[in-house]
Model the fold of this input.
Amino acid sequence: MSKLLYIKANPKNDDASRTFRISEQFIKTYKEYNPQDEIITLDLYKEKIHFLTLDDINSISGPKTDSSKEHPILKYAYQFAEADKYVIAAPMWNLGIPSILKAYIDYIAISGITFKYTEQGAVGLMKGKKAVHIMATGGEYTHGPFSGFEMANRYIKAILTFMGIELVETIVAERLDIIGEDVGKIVSEATKRAQEVAKTF
Ligand SMILES: Cc1cc2nc3c(=O)[nH]c(=O)nc-3n(C[C@H](O)[C@H](O)[C@H](O)COP(=O)(O)O)c2cc1C
Done:
């Protein structure tokens, strides 16, 4: 039995968010194909995620003890480390990820839990796990003049790879805010792809 962590980063509800319309179908198909698996939904807007303070930085660095698993920030890093698979659903905001998702990553990228320092540098501890990043964007970044500006999926892939997760699939619905585009068709095509990926995820 695998444990899948479904990380949602958008204040919109499932029906209003194009990202969530795709990710919810991913989860639905995944459940159909893996009824025995545990799915933990983490809606970041419902959690008490905040920007790290000086006190937070002091309390999360250093040696970990048995009580670290109950720490209000470290508990998220342990929860992440205990999962086998990750679905990250977040729209593109200002060429990157929503700030709350970055704040969450600051909670989970913790030395001694998801990676460690060695004489060769940092080594990811999340080996053998896999992730999918689902994202809706208003413009187009897979081709064309703005492709070099894309920092959401590039960042997600980089930080997950840093933590040792090498298999990162991406599902993007783009051009959604371009006037004249058939939004329904773009979302439906991305949803079909999500359902296909979910079958073997
Ligand atoms: C705060 C904010 C910033 C945004 N920045 C970008 C951006 O940099 N590039 C882009 O293509 N779309 C941008 N958008 C548009 C969204 O990515 C796009 O509308 C997407 O479909 C929203 O997904 P959702 O329906 O899941 O919320 C932004 C939207 C918001 C609310």
